[in-house]
Every structure is written in C-alpha cells, then in structure tokens.
Amino acid sequence: MSSDASPQPYPGDPNQPPPGAYGPPPGAYQPPGAHQPQPYVEAPQPPPGAYLPPGAYTPVPLGPSKNGRGRGPKIAVAAILSVVLLAAVGAVVLFKFVLNQGPDPAESFPATASMYVELNLDPSFDQTPKLLEHLQKFEDLEDYDDTNELINGFVEESGIEGVDADEDINSWLGRRHGLATWEHDGQTYAVLSLASTDAGAAEDGMAQIRTAAGVEADQFSYTVEDDHVLVVLGETGADDALDAAESEAADQPLATSDAYSEARAWLDEDQLLVHWIDMEAMGDLAELTTGTESEAVKDLYSGHVIYGLSAFDQGFQLTYRMFGDADHLWTGTDGLLDSMGEQPASDLAVTAYVPENIDEITQGWLGFFEEFYGVDATEETATEAPLTDAEYTEYMELDTQYWEGTLAAEDEARYWELDARYWAAGTEDDPYVEETYGPDLGEIESVLGDFTSLLAGATLSGGANFDGDDEIDPDSLYFAAHLAEERAQELEELITSVSEGEPLPEGVEVDGSELSYTGSAIADGTLAEDDRFSDFAAQAPGQCAVVAWVDLARAAEEHPDEFDGLEPLSAFAWAHGAQDGDGTGVMRLYLKD
C-alpha cells in the first residue's frame, strides 16, 4: 500500500491498525504540526488463505554518505553504510516479511527538500508477492538463507569493524524509509528517515554505527523517535542542521507541500520506490555545491518530477510525470503505438514523432548545449595554464591518494587546483588549447535547422535484429521517415550532403513524403503479435512522442556473456508522451515466465 493509499474498512480489532495503513489518503495530509508518529504495534494476523511469504523481513540501514572530498577512509566507511539499503533492496525482501508499518517518511523532512526518495518494501499484499516471485528468478538472490546472512555479508565485504549486523541493525530496522537532500545555512545535507520497530535497540545500534564509522556528531547526527530514526549527514554542522530539519518539518513537512502532494497524489498506485525532484531547487543546489551557473538547467526544464517503481504480473514498471511550469514541448501524437505495432517484430525497434514545433525545441536544447559545449574550434588560448611535467607528476600522486582515500587535508586545496587546470588546459606536452570538440555551434545550428524544417510533423521508425557476431544484423535493418509534406527527395539530398557526398545504401526508396530502407532479412511478423508489446501498449500514454522496444531474451541468446546472471530478463519497453501539458511516460521490464 502506498504512502497515500485510501484506507479500507478493516473487520478486525479496532484498536489495531490494518496492514499497510501507512498514512492518510491523497489530498488529506495532516496540517502542519498535527502529525504525531504512531508507535509500533503488532499487526493482526492475515485471514485464512491470505498470502504469507515465508520468514520475516527487515531491511538494511543507511549510514553516512561521502559528501566531501578527500576525507579519507572514515567517510568512506560511512558512505558504504549509506548505500547498503538501496544496494540490498532486491535480495533482502526475499527472506523476511512482517507487517512492520512505519510512518510516512515525507512527514519527517522539511518542505524545502530538493530531492526525496522513499523505499517501501511492504507496499501491499498485491505488490509484495509479485516482488518476491520476480526476484526469486535471479540466481544471485538465492545464495542467502536469510537476511542476517545477507547483512553480515555486506558488513564483512565493506570492511566495517565493530558493527554486529543482528544486534545493531536487524534488531530495530523497519521497512519504510526515506532519503532527502536539503540545503541549510549554505551547506548541503543528506537527511534520512529510517523506520524503527524498537527505539531502545535503534538508539544503541545507531550509536555503534556512528562509532564504527569514525565520524563526529557534527558530521553524523541523529535522533531516535518511537517509530523512526532521523539522521542528518554533512561535512560540518550536522547537529545544528538536525535541529533545524526537525523544526521545519514540524511546521512545514514535505508531505504537505503543494508540489510534492500534487505529484504523489497523481502517482496513486502502490509503489516500491518513489523518487521526487524539485528541479529548480536542484539547480540552486548544483550552483551552491559546484559553483556552476544553473540558469541553463532551469531554462531547459523547471518544475518538479516524480517517478514510481512498482511490480506487475510480468515484471517491473517505472511511471513518471514532469510537472512543468509551462506546457511540455514534446507533445506526441495519437496512434503512434498502433503504427509501431505494424512494424516488423524486430529485436530492437524505435518510433518517434517529430512535433511541428521542433524548431522551438531544438533552440532550447542548443541554448543548454552552448553552456557546456567546451572549447570552441576557433579558440586558441586557454583560460588556465597547462600543467608542467613536475606539476603533472604531483597531480597524479595526489589523484591516486584521493581515490584511495588517503589524501591529507592540507593537500586538498592543491589537488583541486591542479585538477581544475588539468581538465581545463591539459599539460604542456599535451595541451587542450588546440583541441576541438567538433564543428562550431553556428554550423551545428545551421544543419539542425535544415533537418527540422523537413522533419517537422514527421514520424520516424526503425528496427533491427541482434546478431552474435556483429551485434546488429545489417540485413535485418529497416528505417522509414514519413514526412508531413512530399519533401522526401530534399531529405535524401540533405543526408547525402551531410555525409560528405557518400550515397545512401542501396535499397533506399524515395516516394513523395516517404524515405525508407528495408534490409533483405527483416523480422517476420509484427510487433503487435507479441503479447508483451501489446500488454505494454495498453499502459502507454495516449499521446506518445517516442517509443522504444528491446527484446532482451533475444539479446541474451546472441550475447550470453553480457547477460550473465540476467537470464530472467525478457524485454524492455519505454513510451514517453504528454498528459494535460506535462511530460509523462512508462517504462516496463518484462521477465520470463
């Protein structure tokens, strides 16, 4: 059950919460200050015949992440702890399963958070059995008998000393957790909310984890509540930031913010993972942490985005929506999936609609691209001095220490100075000032303008089959461009000019508004005849802009080495389009039966 799923009548003991009753329904969040964490209680037993996976489950913990540079092995150990939860999500859920409901993590974070991730390993009686069934198909997830063995393995491989997985982690960690990035007092912090089933055990476990990580309270600060643990990680000032985060969340939690609540209400189905991003805040955060101007990013896209990962009968689904301040430019068109279904049943297929306002879209992309294009072809002077031989040797030594985690604090400034100069200007023996990264922007803009004038309103499609020797079988290749006007001959001439006079392959046909190529061994049948594709088409946006299809089972047959351990994968599909002016899309990963 998702964090905002509508509660269902529960016939059991009214003093006990129904399974998965995590929080209020969409649009009915508690007002600021009204939320009180609920203490953990034993969940009622499921009715006779209800699905009950074997064992019981508790996920692994998050610890401090490496937010700084060159802090050495202490922060590296903390970083390992912080990623264990996400790294282990797939395997852990196989082995332990209890209804340890936790509070909505979004209630614990300030409304000014720039990014939020929620991991819910018990979303519902519908989702969890599907997740268990899917994950059991992977051989690597059958190597562990229980969660304790899994967590012990992670702790052992990470080199952490002084942490007992059972006593310090499994004894209290619940199954619903959140992670956010948040800016406070000019610094960026990671804030975590970890569901807890035993406040006393959590207090002892967190103290031991912080001691083992070798960090101070101003880098790793936490507070233990009845049903969750709130953690703040940063370079300095984490203890003060923790107080500020608690205070702001009490008055204005993320869960009640207009942007997040709007997005979460749209993503109304049960989700294993929810990822929400405030794009403007992330742009400000990037500028704060890296010094890079964020206006180009904000101009390209503003608003907020939400992603949701769930399990369905045949695999996993990722659904997303981009809540923009302006209408989404790539609007798509009706019937794109129907036309794609008529294409040959190739292992790899792509179809895209080129909107009539493609000129406007490309201008926006070019504005963004210009900010990061690099050294211009006509530029002959570097903004930084290239490294001398001695400086390059010094830089390589410091770089090795940085990646090994042994860089001394007093050498950090020198390392980053040399690093910036190296990547901006190179070395005296190999300077970057005469390097070029392609044609100048004016040439790119001119060529794109020629293409967009021809392709506006067109539908492009193509596909091919995998081949064990050449990766793609050239004889199975097909391509078609259906233009809005009868200008296919102009398109052929433009492609020939861009390819410096090289003629198009034999077999290309030009007929009025269509330019096409069909290989001698294209796939038999159509994509619509594939049950997986038909199932996916029913989930895609009504107006699609681009659709991609990859038959992973065929890819594994032709390239088994690249798919070692991934044999259960069957197909991948993605469709992107628009809904009420917002960009939206669906990705599906199909597994074999």
Rg from alpha-carbon coordinates: 27 Å
Residue-averaged pLDDT: 77
Overall structural class, as computed from helix and strand content, comes to alpha+beta
Number of helices: 17
Give the proportion of residues in helices.
25-40%
Q: What is the strand tally?
A: 18
Strand arrangement across the biggest beta sheet: 4-5-3-2-1-6-7-8-18-17-16-9-10-13-15-14
* Mass-distribution shape: globular
How much of the sequence lies in strands comes to 15-25%
Unreliable residue runs: 1-100, 374-382
Biggest beta sheet summary: 16 strands, antiparallel
Measure the end-to-end span.
Answer: 25 Å
List the defining traits of the structure above.
single chain, 18 strands, globular, alpha+beta, 593 residues, disordered N terminus, 16-stranded antiparallel β-sheet, two-stranded antiparallel sheet
Protein topology:
Blueprint: H1 73-92, E1 115-120, H2 127-135, H3 147-158, H4 165-170, E2 173-184, E3 187-196, H5 199-213, E4 220-224, E5 228-233, H6 238-251, H7 258-266, E6 273-278, H8 279-290, H9 295-300, E7 303-312, E8 315-324, H10 336-341, E9 348-353, H11 358-371, H12 389-404, H13 412-425, H14 441-455, E10 459-464, E11 466-467, E12 471-472, E13 478-482, H15 488-498, E14 508-511, E15 514-518, H16 531-537, E16 543-550, H17 552-558, E17 569-579, E18 582-591
